[in-house]
Amino acid sequence: MTASAEAHHRHRDVSGGWLRPAVFGAMDGLVSNLGLISGVAGSSASAHTIAVAGMAGLAAGAFSMAAGEYTSVASQRELALAEIEVERRELAHNPDAELAELTEVYVRRGVEPQLAREVARQLSRDPEQALEIHSREELGVAPGELASPLVAALASFGSFAVGALLPVLPYLLGGTAFWPAALLALAGLFVCGAVVSRVTARSWWYSGLRQLLLGAGAAALTYGLGSLLGTALG
Fold it and tell me: Where exactly are the structural domains of the chain?
């Protein structure tokens, strides 16, 4: 009956540790390196200088994103595991209090008190199942579903590098003009935005256009800043 009931729909994964860093990494790589290259191009630097700056921005940004994402996810995971361990000790040393606590959860959800206590009692027979239920109810996490810091870091590193490569790619292939790099980066932003819409409620064109406009705004501002600095410091 469960398989039959679930056959008519599928839920997307909203708890994985790779999607958020991958999305933010790609967007950040595109926007930040496009902005960097725009600023350098605006200062009338040579194509060689722009390419070197772009690759330096790619390397620095990718490592920074990976390190930051690893630290962030690892800290969050360690905090969650520490709180789960507190719950494990409570279940071992104060089982009656924890049973009453779980009973109250079901009562607040509309289950009759006697039935709620029986449900809580039966679910608490298995210590690991009881731990998972209490963790979900009280902490909003499950012991086996915590995000992996390594997965988050690798996703962030790879996606940032790919995103940051697009603006500098025309220069690496021998180009000397800024506009191919800008067009390629903006197209990449639109595609990334459209892909993100697959896991959100937004339409693909709205999501893609939003990212394109944000990237274009950042590029225009940094290009102008580069022009001003190039003139002032030249």
Answer: 16-224
Share of the chain above pLDDT 70, in %: 91
pLDDT score, position 44:
87
Torsion over CA: 108, 111, 113, 116 (sign):
negative
pLDDT at 106: 93
Classify 177 in phi/psi space as left (phi over 0), alpha (psi -120 to 50) or beta.
Answer: beta
* HSE toward the beta carbon, residue 46, CA cutoff 13 A: 4
Average pLDDT over residues 123-147: 90
Instruction: Let me know how many helices (H) and strands (E) the chain has, helices first.
Output: 9, 0
Specify the 3-state DSSP secondary structure of 145.
Answer: helix
For the entire predicted model, the pTM comes to 0.79
Instruction: Collect contacts of 50-55 with beta carbons under 8 A, ≥24 apart.
Output: 50/168, 50/171, 50/178, 51/168, 51/171, 51/172, 54/164, 54/167, 54/168, 54/171, 55/168, 55/172
